[in-house]
Amino acid sequence: MKQLVTAGSLPWRLMGARRQATACLAGLALAGLALPGFASELAGEEAGAPQVIEREGVRIAFTTHPLGAHDENVEALREADHVEVRFRITDPASGQPVTGLYPAAWMDLAASSAVMAGGAALSCDQKIQRYAQGNLNFRPLIDLNSYHVLTLNRDATISVLDPIVNVAGLTSTYAMLPLRSPGADWALSPTGRRLFVSMPGEGEIGVFDTDSFELVGNYPVGHQPVRLALSADGQRLWIGDDAPAADQGGVLILDTASLEVIAAIATGAGHHDIALTADGRLAFVTNSEADTLSVIDAETFEVLGELDTGDEPVSVAYSRHAEAAFVAARDGTVTVVDGITGEVRTRRELEPGLRMVRFSPDGRWAFLVNTDTDSVEVIDPATHETRHRLAVEPGPDQVSFTQAYAYVRSLGSPKISMIPLEGLGRQAAPPVMSFASGSSEPARASRVGLDNAVSQTNIDHAVLVANPTADSITFYMEGMAAPMGTFRNFGHFATSVKIVDRSVSEREPGLYTTQLRLPAAGTYDLALLLDSPRMTHCFALEAEENPTLANPAHYAVSFDERPASITAGNSAQLRFQVSREERRTSTAIDDQPVYLSYFLSPGLHRTRVPARVLGDGRYEVDLAFERAGAYYLFVEVPALGIGAGDIRPTVILSRPQDAVRERVSSPANAQTDVDRG
């Protein structure tokens, strides 16, 4: 699918949070970015040893660490490995960590940059300057400053948006994930590499790989799976089964590694909200029609007790600070359950109409949202007393948080209410502010969604907002009088929004990391830019060919006289053969339908075309290389179960034309390509 592409500005993480968003949406041009003249230094340390530089008053130690199923007997990194890259930044004099930095990083095959530059060898500084400009003719294979915006839509789709924004507010649809029926709830694994989506209309869970944004599979789970909750370690997915029969309702537990249901527990009739203790020892499950809360041992899956909650318990949340679960019932009853004993500590009677209970990030305050009274009750879980009762927009039904604010979505208004957390507990009530997301109230939508309509971005003090009546996502920066802009969703209406973060972030003091998947074998340059102190450096990373990548059937593709490079704007006719490799013999496949998918690194202009059958397993295809850069080609044979990525891709480098070689991707020259088909 050909995609909308827009010219962007410097990624948000290159500056302080407020300056990042302002510069991005104002279209800051970086053609004149002043960088010190450090030459590219590709260290030659042995595998596994850190590459260390010391400059401008900082010491940077760069290391790579394989993740997941990497073969421990193989020391070298290999293509398709999942890898964590780490930059440990310290003061060389004291050894103390240097904190609060926003590193920017890009990674590409070492040979690619020269091709994109028309054959000219580029210094590390020159590469970084071109990467930072966002020039569409000079894109890295992996952008380590990026994140993707995921929207769960009212229809049976999930949009994956690439938030590269120009002054027109356009967004690139990176991928569109089809579902078998509309999704009700979704959960992202702690690593961000797996996405789980409940589909009550199908009785299934859809599982997606967020590295490739491809479907792993659809898995039957109960009768009507709705609510999802992941354990803190991501190993178990708790699924609320809102089965129509009273004796079938309850929860199922899915092992996220094997994707098999390991337990099914009947808890009672109705809708089931789920909360887990911080240590993963207990699970709390509401049963809205049975008017009870089930307390479950999360290791043995034994039901330890059934507690009365008041009429129609609709929401449950756990506070690590209070070591207690709060249960909100529609009749106004709040039941507080001890997180150690699983017994009722106390009950509070509030006004009827409770819709949700959630805790502030530090667990210090319980927020109870009341749809009928248009208010939010803020309770101190230590004393169980109400500290504030705050009026918000009509029909509030959700609350979510950043470190500084609580955000309340209301069904009767397009405005989002904001409550500052810093002022809670004082005698004076905190001020309630608001901003608009869309122009219509969410209640007008056919589906409003269960999961958060407001989610924090990968930078501090900024959120994204989904309104199910609008085909765009609102970007709001805390402290601003109005939203900064919107991301278009092109005819899809989102009920909730999530972030898949690929950027380099500070995980602990002085340690900056991110995770990636090595897409191909070869030598990579990993270009690093620090804004303060201002410095650049290019590290080396080597990925070997992975012999285990051959698919189970051991198929191979061989091209006839494949060009190593081609001039951008031209087409090429390729001929190739698909064969089955077995015991040192090669047998051409029968004349099956074959497709060739190709895209411009790092994932732009994805196109899938059918190949013409020539006979004897041979095929022919015409490909258009519209822009300069590295194109990755994948052969697919659906009848044999061979999908994109099952056979090692081939790479063709597209050289720029003289007329476009030096174009600067500034907002004034922003180009877009749209294929509505």
UniProtKB/TrEMBL annotation:
Disordered as annotated region, ranges: 658-677
InterPro entries: Haem_d1_sf (IPR011048), Host-pathogen_enzymatic-act (IPR051200), WD40/YVTN_repeat-like_dom_sf (IPR015943), YVTN_b-propeller_repeat (IPR011964)
Organism domain of life: Bacteria
Residue stretches spanning the membrane: none
Biased composition (Polar residues): 666-677
Protein name (record): Cytochrome D1
